[in-house]
Write a structure and sequence with these properties.
- It is a single chain.
- The chain has helices spanning 60-64, 87-100, 108-121, 194-209, 255-266, 278-286, 324-336, 355-361, and strands at 5-6, 27-37, 42-49, 67-69, 72-76, 82-85, 133-142, 155-164, 172-176, 214-218, 226-229, 232-238, 241-244, 270-273, 292-297, 301-310, 313-316, 347-349.
- It is α+β, with helices and mostly antiparallel strands.
- The chain folds into 2 domains: 5-168 and 343-362, D-amino Acid Aminotransferase, Chain A, domain 1, CATH 3.30.470.10; 172-318, D-amino Acid Aminotransferase, Chain A, domain 2 (Alpha-Beta Barrel), CATH 3.20.10.
- Strands 1, 2, 3, 4, 5, 6, 7, 8 and 18 form a 9-stranded mixed β-sheet that branches.
- A hairpin with a 2-residue loop joins strand 12 and strand 13.
- The two termini are 17 Å apart.
- The model has no long low-confidence stretch (mean pLDDT 96).
- It binds 2-OXO-4-methylpentanoic acid.
- Residues 71, 197, 231, 297-300 line the site of 2-OXO-4-methylpentanoic acid.
- 2-OXO-4-methylpentanoic acid binds at residues 71, 197, 231, 297-300.
């Protein structure tokens, strides 16, 4: 067990939160968990009030981009239990990103105990209202004060929480991107690293100015194969088939993506993970064989796509309330919220601990 030092806020801010009108990404909880890597090992574990960090201007992550993160959600069930959704997958993916970005891996113990300690302390921030959750953002940054270009020796790992509403409040309009690229073979597209999100912003800004919500990235060589969609993965539904691009070095291994594939298969759908071209989507639409398009992601959960544009071609898809996307979303949400049996053992119960007791036993 790791030894965490606690510095609690004198007064929680949770009573100021309007849980019925939650935006995405603005309501940060009272505390954050911090761990430091000294070049050899992780240590100096602490929980302190959420707030600004004092950082040197020469911190290497700010210049050379060694920064990785995860996104995961925590839910409150009708029995008042607090459940994290597949946190061990986030831990594994974070370590995969760390290896790719020459950063140190974290033990499961540090990741999971830090997470549980934070959620326990800030459990009043876990909402129970439909479409809301506690979003956790574990991240790691390089912290050497050094101007030379090389992998940092020291790092900081932080987990903070944000009580959130939906990322997308309605079905989305998407532009197939044919000028800019997000990732290429041999690059870092598969890693959840900050630079991938920065690289996506320019094309996304143009698409938003044209009336879209997100871009659908295509392969860097031919702009022929579809890859990620904004911050999510894409699925196309055609009869009993659901098609999604296979994950490879340009596509993040989405945890919601994996879960939806499993759920769809158990519902009898044939799920194909394979190369999917823009033309195949448009051809299926033209022949009446495209039933639905949807995006999956931790923040986005399952979001229907109502419009897809590629150069001068357009797909318009009315959202079906009893359609595949909505059905899969509801099934997944029911598991996450403890309303349906968790047959796949995806949820991780955060057992309440008596923080005051932990703190006093550690002499804090
Ligand atoms: C997530 O779905 O957790 C993401 O990482 C998207 C985020 C950048 C808002």
């Amino acid at each position: 067990m790791i030894n965490i030092k606690y510095h609690k806020v004198p007064q929680s801010r949770v009573s100021d939160v309007d849980f019925n009108n939650l935006p995405f990404g603005k309501e940060f909880t009272d505390h954050m968990f911090i761990a430091e890597y000294d070049g050899e090992k992780w240590g100096n574990f602490k929980i302190q009030p959420y707030g600004p960090l004092l950082l040197s201007p020469s911190l290497s992550c700010m210049h050379y981009g060694q920064a990785i993160f995860e996104g995961m959600k925590v839910y409150r069930t009708h029995k008042d239990e607090v459940l994290a959704f597949r946190p061990l997958e986030n831990h594994q993916r974070m370590n995969a990103s760390a290896v790719r970005m020459c950063m140190p891996e974290l033990s499961e113990e540090v990741f999971m105990e830090g997470l549980q300690a934070l959620v326990n302390l800030d459990k009043e921030w876990v909402p129970h209202i439909e479409n809301t959750s506690l979003y956790l953002r574990p991240f790691m940054i390089a912290t050497d004060d050094f101007l030379g270009v090389s992998a940092s020796k020291t790092y900081m790992f932080i987990i903070y929480g944000c009580t959130v509403g939906p990322y997308y409040t309605k079905p989305i309009k998407v532009k197939v991107e044919t000028d800019y690229i997000r990732a290429c073979k041999g690059g870092v597209g598969e890693a959840k690293t900050a630079g991938n999100y920065a690289a996506a912003m320019y094309a996304t800004r143009i698409a938003i100015s044209e009336g879209f919500n997100a871009v659908l990235w295509t392969d860097a060589l031919e702009h022929k194969y579809v890859e990620e969609l904004g911050t999510s993965n894409i699925f196309a539904v055609s009869g009993n088939k659901i098609i999604t691009p296979e994950t490879k070095d340009t596509i993040l291994k989405g945890i919601t993506r994996m879960s939806i594939i499993t759920l769809a298969r158990t519902m009898g759908y044939e799920v194909e993970e394979r190369p999917l071209t823009v033309d195949e989507i448009f051809d299926k639409y033209a022949s009446g064989a495209l039933d639905e398009l949807f995006a999956t992601g931790t923040a986005a959960t399952v979001t229907s796509i109502c419009q897809l544009n590629h150069l001068n071609r357009e797909i318009l898809l009315p959202v079906k309330e009893d359609g595949v996307a909505v059905t899969l979303k509801n099934r997944l949400e029911n598991i996450k919220r403890g309303k349906a049996e968790d047959v796949f053992e995806w949820t991780f119960k955060i057992f309440p601990t008596n923080i005051e007791k932990v703190m006093s036993s550690e002499g804090v």
